[in-house]
TrEMBL record:
It comes from Candidatus Sulfobium mesophilum. One of its GO terms (biological process) is DNA repair. Keywords: Hydrolase. InterPro entries: HAD-like_hydrolase_sf (IPR050155), HAD-like_sf (IPR036412), HAD-SF_hydro_IA (IPR006439), HAD_sf (IPR023214). It holds the Pfam family Hydrolase. PANTHER family: GMP_IMP NUCLEOTIDASE YRFG, PHOSPHOGLYCOLATE PHOSPHATASE. One of its GO terms (cellular component) is cytosol. One of its GO terms (molecular function) is phosphoglycolate phosphatase activity. This is HAD-superfamily hydrolase, subfamily IA, variant 3.
Amino acid sequence: MSKMKVPLDDIKYVLLDMDGTLLDKYFDDYFWEHLLPEKYAEKKNVTFGRAKEELLARYKTHEGTLNWTDIDFWSGEVDIDIPALKEQIKHLIEVHPHVEDFLMMLKQRRKKVFLVTNAHYKVLDIKLKKTRIGKYFDATVTAFELGYPKEMREFWEKAEKMLGFRKERSLFIDDTKAVLLAAKKFGIKYILYKSISSSKAEKGSSEEFQSLDDFRELMPQRQKGV
């Protein structure tokens, strides 16, 4: 496992995405690509294939907007109670390997740790209750609080004012390249691409950003254990 070139001693603020970065995105992929199309097919009395095709096309039109992760919006779009459906499969919500060790290490080193997410507050609540990782964050900010998704500069301008981080001493980790590009343009100095977002999907790659496969890569050698 290669050592990441991230100077933790120079970093005071660590900004972390949730879905796909800290949490296994399999939960979300299964929900949006399998479970919801299945329920939608039953409701509309169409085949699973047709339901999935229709929903994927509708998702695409809202990608990169607040609607993309707004489960109240989607509940209205498909006439299905999305929060209730997510609750039914919350047992699938899992933290990526070594995330908790990494978060504990950051707290021990007195870093300011912020969760920055596009997730809807109802989904955030379900996931933090299931994983119990909320205790590691100094603050949490969502796109819905700020009125802009992370893909837009306005999100970062508002987040900086709200959280009080300094760009030149901040590390940001996310699994979405469009978000990383927005953060880079805004001026965040240290950026990592989380290349393994789902335990059931292919590893991603990035030419522009240094890739992080596993959070163990950011742990000091003496804290990695065997």
